[in-house]
Design a protein that fits this description.
The complex is a heterodimer of chains A (111) and B (116). Helices cover 0% and strands 52% of the residues of chain A. Chain A contains no helices and eleven strands. Chain B is built from no helices and eleven strands. Classes of the chains: A mainly beta (111), B mainly beta (116). The A-B interface holds A 1, 30-31, 33, 35, 40-45, 48, 50, 88, 90, 92, 96-99, 101-104, 106 and B 4, 6, 31, 40-43, 45, 48, 50, 59, 88, 90, 92, 94, 96-97, 100-110, 112.
Chain lengths: 111, 116
């Protein structure tokens, strides 16, 4: 099946630092979604992207839909301890409603 | 207050017993999904349903069964045939795709199943 390669797998950063993570695919996607999962909870949708080149912000979070339609990026500015969690990318490529998920990026923030 | 509920949060069973996990949504979504998550892993699709009385197998359906008798409900049964049932189970729902957009899936809080 299709795969989304998400990197890095984990990050350990200092509070206040900016964070970047990305997701790449060998095939084209027409939708990119970014989720955050807190420990023991379900993923929460952060940002949805629908057009190539689209740049969307949600507070300190900014995500971009790559112009090749094969990648997406999520940036977090001025990280705080509550940013800790696992961030998942997900994409749809017209396979009905199905989403393909990346393996996740585990973010740890040192106060 | 719209959302997806899963119950219970924690479930313990003895090996060889079937167990049913509940998932209810009041978002008026047509489609519902079940995922399995193992420690440190991503999400794997078990079953999905696009419409009432219809469902399809996902990537890891063996040892699981579902029903979709009502739009709001999509229970998952973990049968004794599932060789490694201990995991975190997540239910999600979405609108059916129409035109652009509409692919967002919204997740419940999850059920952690432990089988000993």
């Amino acid at each position: 099946g299709q795969q989304l390669n998400q990197s890095p797998q984990s990050m350990f950063i200092q509070e206040g630092e900016d964070v970047s993570m990305n997701c790449t695919s060998s095939s084209i996607f027409n939708t990119w979604l970014w989720y955050k999962q807190d420990p023991g909870e379900g993923p929460v949708l952060l940002i949805a992207l629908y057009k190539a080149g689209e740049l969307t912000s949600n507070g300190r979070l900014t995500a971009q839909f790559g112009i090749t339609r094969k990648d997406s990026f999520l940036n977090i500015s001025a990280s705080i301890p509550s940013d800790v969690g696992i961030y998942f990318c997900a994409g749809n490529n017209n396979a009905g409603n199905m989403l393909t998920f990346g393996g996740g990026t585990r973010l740890m923030v040192k106060p | 207050d719209g959302g997806i509920t899963q119950s219970p949060k924690y479930l313990f069973r003895k090996e060889g017993q079937n167990v049913t996990l509940s998932c209810e949504q009041n978002l008026n979504h047509d489609a519902m999904y079940w995922y399995r998550q193992d420690p440190g892993q991503g999400l794997r699709l078990i079953y999905y349903s696009q419409i009432v009385n219809d469902f399809q197998k996902g990537d890891i359906a063996e040892g699981y069964s579902v029903s979709r008798e009502k739009k709001e409900s999509f229970p998952l049964t973990v049968t004794s045939a599932q060789k490694n049932p201990t995991a975190f189970y997540l239910c999600a729902s979405s609108f059916s795709h129409s035109g652009t957009g509409g692919y967002e899936q919204y997740f419940g809080p999850g059920t952690r199943l432990t089988v000993t």
